[in-house]
Write a structure and sequence with these properties.
The chain is mainly beta and 296 residues long. Helix content is 8%, strand content 21%. The protein is built from 3 helices and 21 strands. A 5-stranded mixed β-sheet has the order 15-16-18-21-20, covered by helices on one side. A 4-stranded parallel β-sheet has the order 1-3-5-6, with no helix packed on it. Strands 8-10-12 form a 3-stranded parallel β-sheet, with no helix packed on it.
């Protein structure tokens, strides 16, 4: 249907498994696509809906792949919801969507990369929530947007050239001299980087402590008070490389985390999860002697 400018409506068969490259590219009569009932569609291939006049699109609930330039130059697209099943988005997938004002990947744990130019030229894009386990951000990924600031997950290991505008403030959850993240910003210059002590991810219920050298019971109490949460609201704890000491009683007084120190010893300080709480520690070796001494 490439360049079918008079096409203004599509009825979708339930048997469709993927939408091919350039399938509806330049179909400028298309303003709305509803794929929400198509549970079989797993892939939208490259340029499938590029340069259309889509204002709204409801993606398939079990979509896994969004190809290169799949929605590029959709100049009327104001918002889009990304299904939690998506594992891959391609280069320039939403580039030049000049009316796109926000994008939320908080419900997308399988996306580990935002590729080159993914949102390049989205001039109205002012709010971005990155995937919780993101590992890389490509060149020019969010260049020429209106992002004032963005939270960079601690899982990010690679950071491209001019991924953001130079005036965008990058909020990060690690220490300025954190050796594990030294390489992340090796090609980055001109940004204001805000090194935060801790953050709380509402969607995941995840508390990240990045740069407090010693974690005490008072510090944990202070954090929970500031984020307006109780201990039972915290289902996951991430401890970054800035932390050198965990006081013996730091978490014992909390409902979900009262046995957390024992738990991390049992699982060799890698990852522990029960029905009520989980723990991830980023720098494992640092706590071995402490745990050996302090945990029965």
């Amino acid at each position: 249907f490439y360049d079918c400018t008079q096409l203004n409506q599509v009825y979708w068969s339930s048997s469709i498994k993927n939408i091919g490259s350039c399938a509806f590219s330049l179909c400028t009569g298309l303003t709305y696509i509803d794929l929400s009932a198509n549970t079989g569609i797993k892939e939208i291939q490259g340029s499938a809906f590029s340069s259309t006049c889509l204002c709204t699109i409801d993606l398939p609930p079990y979509l896994e792949t969004i190809g290169d330039s799949a929605f590029s130059n959709c100049c009327d697209l104001g918002s889009i919801s990304i299904p939690s099943t998506v594992t891959y988005i391609g280069a320039q997938s939403f580039s030049e969507c000049v009316k796109l004002n926000s994008i939320d990947f908080s419900d997308c744990p399988y996306i580990t990369s935002i590729p080159n130019k993914a949102f390049l030229g989205c001039s109205q894009l002012g709010i971005v929530v990155l995937p919780p386990y993101l590992e890389s951000i490509g060149d020019n990924a969010f260049l020429n947007t209106r992002l004032a600031s963005v939270d960079i997950p601690a899982s990010v290991k690679e950071f491209g050239v001019q991924s953001f505008n130079s005036e965008t403030v990058l909020n990060v959850d690690w220490l300025e001299n954190d050796t594990d993240h030294t390489e992340v910003f090796k090609d980055v210059s001109g940004y204001t980087i805000n090194y935060r002590k801790y953050t709380f991810n509402e969607y995941l219920g995840s508390l990240s402590i990045a740069s407090e050298t010693t974690i005490t019971a008072d510090f944990v109490t202070e954090i929970l008070s500031k984020i307006g949460k109780n201990s039972w609201d915290v289902s996951s704890l991430i401890i970054g490389n800035g932390v050198t000491t965990i006081d013996e009683g730091a978490f014992f007084d909390y409902y979900n985390m009262k046995n957390i120190i024992k738990s991390i010893l049992i699982c060799y300080i890698i990852y522990y999860k029960t029905s009520s709480c989980s723990l991830i520690i980023c720098s494992c070796d640092r706590f071995k002697s402490f745990l050996t001494c302090c945990v029965p």
